[in-house]
Amino acid sequence: MKTIAVVSTAGGTGRTTLSAALAVLLARRGRQVVALDLDPQNMLGAHLGIDGLAPAGIAQALLDETVAWHTHTWRNAEGVLFVPYGAVSLAQGAHCDARLAAEPQWLANALAQLDLLRDGVVLIDTARYPSQQAAQAVRCADLVLCVTPPEPAACATLVARLDGLRRDGANLRIIVNRLNPARDMQRDVLAMLAAALGDGVPLAQRVHLDVALPESFARGTWLFDDAPHSQASHDLQGLANWLDAWVGGAPANHARRHGEPT
Fold first, then answer.
1. Environment class of residue 230 by beta-carbon count within 10 Å: exposed (0-12), middle (13-18) or buried (19+)?
2. How do 172-179 and 143-148 pair as beta strands?
3. Residue 260, pLDDT score
4. H/E segment holding residue 5
5. CA distance 49 to 7
6. How far apart are CA 32 and CA 11, in angstroms?
7. What is the three-class DSSP state of 37?
8. Coiled-coil annotation: which residues (predicted)?
9. Which DSSP category does 49 fall into?
10. Backbone angles phi, psi at 249, to 5 degrees
């Protein structure tokens, strides 16, 4: 199986929406997909069509060692198996962070218990990097997708965190989300970001801004179904195709050590 961590270094990047969309699109391509919510905000399920916020999930296993981490799972209408983070109080959240800090391989060991097909996919939506959740996901991922909008503050934060991301996840790609080519500032920011990244971390894909996306979410539908010919839908399908090809071509559990996706 291949593990993909979806991270961001700033808030409001659209990371969770993108994670849910990719999970569904990969499932539609015939992949066995497990989507993990490793963000205490516990919102991935809502994007995958689960009513309400799941009260229990991964966090409860972190709080109680006798609870299996995959005890609370859901399967959405698209066939994606979803594991929520679960609801936590402030004190419980601190306890979860402390356990993850004390056991750096907790997530890797948990994922080793999964019995997925060789070409199955585990897609992890994480808390904002740096965090204990994001660090766990990045360390065990075959591929790390870092999502950023082409805005000055978000890109500056990404550049500042780049060394840490490179250390924790060798196979790192940047996804530029909510791109609006009509804005000169965004083009300038992208040029500066590309220069800061250099040749070692390419800008893998770009997803254009589409104002219809929040409406699709509110209706419980997908933008690529509602408006299949829009630029954003085309971008999402292209990103899913790229990931699908990488999953089919990269040796299992070796992508992080051997670099480039194929």
1. middle
2. parallel
3. 39
4. strand 2-7
5. 21
6. 29
7. strand
8. none
9. T
10. -110, -25
Grouping H, G, I as helix, E, B as strand and the rest as coil, residue 35 is strand
* Confidence band for 79, pLDDT divided at 50, 70 and 90: very high
pLDDT of 17 strictly over 50: yes
* Contact predicate 62/96, CB 8 Å: yes
Task: Using DSSP, state whether 224 is helix, strand or coil.
Answer: helix
Per the structure, how many domains does the chain have?
1
Residue 260 covered by a domain: no
Distance CA 6, CA 40 (A): 15
Does residue 262 belong to any structural domain of this protein? no
| Residue numbers of the domain that contains 73 | 2-251
Q: How far apart are the first and last CA of the chain?
A: 16
Q: What is the CATH number of the domain that holds 173?
A: 3.40.50.300
Whether 257 maps to a domain, the answer reads: no
The contacts of residue 185 (CB under 8 Å, 6+ apart) are 152
> What's the number of CA atoms in the CB half-sphere (13 Å) around residue 144?
29
Q: pTM for the full model?
A: 0.90
Instruction: Yes or no: say if 244 and 26 are a contact pair by the CB < 8 Å rule.
Output: yes
